[in-house]
Design brief:
515 residues, alpha/beta, Aldehyde Dehydrogenase, Chain A, domain 1, Aldehyde Dehydrogenase, Chain A, domain 2, 19 strands, binds NADP nicotinamide-adenine-dinucleotide phosphate
Amino acid sequence: MVKHYSNEPYVDFTKKENRMKMENAFKQLQKSKGKYHPLVIGGKKFDTDKTITSINPSNFKEVIGKSASADTGYAEKAIEAASMAFEEWKHVDPKERAEYLFKAAAIIRREKYEFSALLVEEAGKSWVEADADTAEAIDFLEYYARQMIELSKGMDVFPYPGETNECFYIPLGVCVVISPWNFPLAILAGMASAAIVTGNTVIMKPASSTAVIAAKFMEVWERAGLPDGVANYLPGPGSLVGDYLVKHPKVRFINFTGSKEVGLRINRLAADISPGQKWIKRTTLEMGGKDAIIVDSQASLEDAATGVVKSAFGYQGQKCSACSRAIIVKDVYDEMLKLIIEKTGALKINDPKSVEADIGPVIDQKAYNSILNYIKTGNSEGRLLTGGNTPIENGYFIAPTVFADVSPSARIAREEIFGPVLSVIKAENFDHALTIANDTEYGLTGGVFSLNRQKLQRARREFNVGNLYFNRKCTGALVGIQPFGGFNMSGTDSKAGGTDYLLLFMQAKSVTEKL
Ligand code: NAP
């Protein structure tokens, strides 16, 4: 009997025993620093000439681990292995498939501190953010397993005289999962487990910056006893192996989360038919955001400032859901600026290995350079209120940065920065604020702080985002509670963690028999 689904509780780090467990996990991790992780294709391990070196973004002299780096030859091998495995896996009972997810969830839950410690050191997450990533991975596994059991009953159809009719779901084939580094465990686990539990086989192409976490997740599949070839671990340069996988005629669908540029490229390449290809490839593309929080004149400003600062600077603003535009109605603008500066100033910047750290490093040199360039642009496009500097040496630390008086047409108000930079925009009134909020090519998350029910109702209808939050932060969607996905250039609105998600990875077959 499967228990009722509930979200994995977060660890309370105010408790000494939990802090000790995390410190122990760091000690354990120290022993495996520098370890090499081979490719895993069809259950076999492959070493490669080239390697990916994973660096601690808080201390770039420290190597977290190394991973093999696939080329197109290994990508071909992986497609062959996944295609072969599909022939058996597609016939495995959905309930049995779900069992592998339950086992994987149990393994991660048992070792959650080890996973979170690695997320701190490889991805630069604070303890709380790392724990949330680990908890979300567990949630995806638990939730999709239950969803598949439910969907195995098939689609409801009406009876028809003289016939029996049924309509059931079958898998598609080989899936390429391409994941980002910002939720390197949760998003990879979510995308891969959804494809696997629906009866497909998967090639996991994780982000290069967090290849070690992905390798650890691959080990979970192995330890859960997933048959060889159902999940394959294929790190490698996205532009090389990613392109090859996406174009391949034997790939049936691509499940991608990452930037708009790469997502649109995948969309274009997947639309072309390669010689020998028998199907129209499906793509699920979850991409970037330029998310806004509106602060109305009738709002609790204290709550609004807390919500804005949490949404803007949690994980250094490196969330697709991060608030990067605070749109504030002019009556409360000055008061809000004061509160935002105060709350931003209270954030502690430190190596996230310390439980005290609220703000850690950004992920790598490329991100660091790009964010600092945006800050340079911001200096001419807005009024710097706080931040803009790089407070700690030896790591990619950028202070949380706030620009005020930013025009809605400024580059820092329109382009996804993906770092700790907030643009504050003044609006004449609520109408104007809503117009500014919607004036973007993206449509992922949004927030409104208002105590006026009519204004909230209006935002409910007109604020064009996939995930809208009232009087709270606009990050932190929970699996099964706030299905997640964005509109327009934010993606295909797949609603990960919702009841519709698994349907994207299957096709429905209707069978009729005349009596
Ligand atoms: P990215 O640069 O687009 O990379 C994402 C993945 O795509 C990585 O595994 C990358 O591999 C791979 N890749 C790169 N070039 C490729 C190509 N030509 N073909 C196929 N794959 C390719 O994004 P990121 O920097 O990792 O992640 C940040 C972005 O993700 C932000 O825009 C953020 O908003 C978005 N995001 C969206 C959501 C959502 O749910 N909407 C959630 C999280 C993040 P390499 O690492 O080897 O380059």
